[in-house]
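User: I'm putting together notes for a lab meeting next week and I want to include a structural view of one of the chains we've been expressing. I don't have a solved structure, so I'd like a prediction I can at least talk through. The sequence is below, exactly as it appears in our construct file.
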Amino acid sequence: MSKPKIDNTLYYHTKSLLNGILPLEYAIRAFKQNDPVNYQYLSEKNEIIKKIWLDADFNEEEIKWEKLLDLSWDLIQVGVPLYRMHGRIHSNLSFLKLIEETSHKVYDECKDFLKDKSIPLIKRYRIIDLLLGNDIEKLTLKVIEKMPNLEQYEKQDDIPIEKFVFGKFREAIVLYPGAKFMQLDPYEEVGVKIPGYALFLDINMNEDDIENSINEFKYQYAKYREAKKYPKYDPVANKMLSNFLHNDLVDNSLKQEVTRIDGLLSGLLGLYCYDKSIKNKELSKVNYLQNAIEDITKLYPRSNEESIKKYYKNVRNKIKEQWDIYSYPDSPSI
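Assistant: Thanks for the context. Below is the predicted structure for the 334-residue chain, given as structure tokens.
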């Protein structure tokens, strides 16, 4: 008798999370491995940006919680802030004003950081995502911890929030070459100034990128008008954001790494093994991979050494693939 298919929101949430994280993590390692000079350059510039916020009396926790480095790099890289913060609205308007003023200062002082720079992976990925990434060990342990919950619920069940894989994990907000989001200067109508938000699509984009950028625009537009109308409640923006949450309208345009229940851990275990092998190799050139494989099997005994080695090789290929895709100007994927 075949094993019943798992079909519940917990499974789909976990799968969606990993599909947003794994390609980004492959790209980060491809970047560090193939272009360490530019990676170091961006890391140093990131510290300069952070110092501007610290000098403006923001503390480390505020910079992290309010995603002020995300805001800064988005303004430099794409011209507008990009969001993945559902239900977050600032109630302290003076604090919001200080963020706005400091972000202008950051942009004025740092807008030329990318001038004359050719960095392939930032065609598809945000710089801040590539610089910060995720704690893969923490994520792997969290998914292993929550895995037993997957088989306990049916499609229609209400699942307690503590059963989900939650944490401050960073999913990629994908960029679409040729698409630009723009905050427009307000126009005046019957004496009232009305701000706007626009999407520009160039005439060379492929069909998938066009569709995905339009869906991404809907989300970013909803967040923009929600913020602009605050403290007044905006039912239209709320409905658009709810549609995003329930229907996953924004396709991340990256290859779906996880498509089945038995694939939830393979990418993570392979990535964790890859990272361990790199660290082991720095200490000893002997048995660095075998020792990493043995460590992973101890962490997750349900996988054997042969499986972990296969996951490791697959991850290594994925890392190479990320670099190859975005390094060649004629690639159909950019």
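A couple of points you could mention at the meeting. The chain is about 55% helix and 5% strand. The two ends are 45 Å apart (CA to CA).

User: Perfect, that's what I needed.
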